[in-house]
Amino acid sequence: MQYNIEISERLSRVLNIDASSLGEAIEIAEQKYQDEEIVLDWTDFHDNVVIKEFRENLLNEKDELMNEIIAYLIEDEEKHFLESGKPDNHIYTKLIKLQKLI
Length: 102
Description:
Protein name: DpnD/PcfM-like C-terminal domain-containing protein
Structural class: mainly alpha
Low-confidence stretches: none
Pfam families: DpnD-PcfM (PF14207)
Number of strands: 0
InterPro entries: DpnD/PcfM_C (IPR025575)
Number of domains: 1
Organism: Sulfurovum sp. enrichment culture clone C5
Largest sheet: none
Strand content: under 5%
Shape: elongated
């Protein structure tokens, strides 16, 4: 019996790109790749480096967005928290906990 077995190799390179968002960084990288400013060769042979970096970038962007949302909400929620008699289950207490975790 014969079996079809595919063997493949993956080339990857981690780039440090200055951008205002992950989406913009991806667009810049794609454009440089299309313009052949980035050409991968045998020195770029790695295992899952791009996937790891991509996940780390997503986590960093998530933390930045969460910090922006907390900064936007915290002043008004603190005021409401104090006016409400400092209830234990108020969203303000959760915002403070989240802010400390980030």
